[in-house]
Amino acid sequence: MSISDFRKKKLLFLFNVFFDVNQSGEIDLKDFELAIERVCKLRGWSPEHPKNKETHDIMLKIWEGLREKADKDNDGQVSVDEWCIMWDAYAKDPTSVHDWQDRYMNFMFDLEDASNDGGIDANEFALVCSSYGLDKNECQEAFKKMSKGESEVTREQFANLWREYFSAEDVNAPGNFIFGKTTF
Length: 184
Ligand SMILES: [Ca+2]
Ligand SMILES: [Ca+2]
Prior knowledge:
Number of strands: 2
Strand order of the largest sheet: 1-2
CATH class: Mainly Alpha
CATH topology: Recoverin, domain 1
CATH architecture: Orthogonal Bundle
Bound molecules: calcium ion
Order of helices and strands: HHHHHEHHEH
Structural class: mainly alpha
Number of domains: 1
Distance between the termini: 20 Å
Mean pLDDT: 96
Oligomer: single chain
CATH superfamily: EF-hand
């Protein structure tokens, strides 16, 4: 595998903090169930709320897509190696993007854009990222770096930063900060 240490650190951060919610060392359905619960709790979406069902549907589609593409040994879990191989393929050729990867990116944007005005601001960003256990001040710092001092990040900018997260070798690339962490 030809992934640099720096890119590997970014992939492991995303794996450990955003996907392997129960810290079992693998990603599976259980992690997604926990993530759904966490998101609905963060937003105050009760089981009867339409957004609760919508979140279930989207997240389960994301899991199905991830499992289908990454779980090469078909054990129902995505290991660190399977995870890194998949994202490395995306970094080398972003046009090969899977549906689930796009779906996840849009899901994160929509989740962060709580006011639903097409832009994410520092507070919206920090609220969501810190719900994954990150320090709120660090998230605010990360937002400044990724927005290059602008007050908002649009969906289009977010998509460019997203690609950069997976491909950039430059430690100062703005895309590195899209998940709220400032140093790797
Ligand atoms: Ca897990
Ligand atoms: Ca597997």
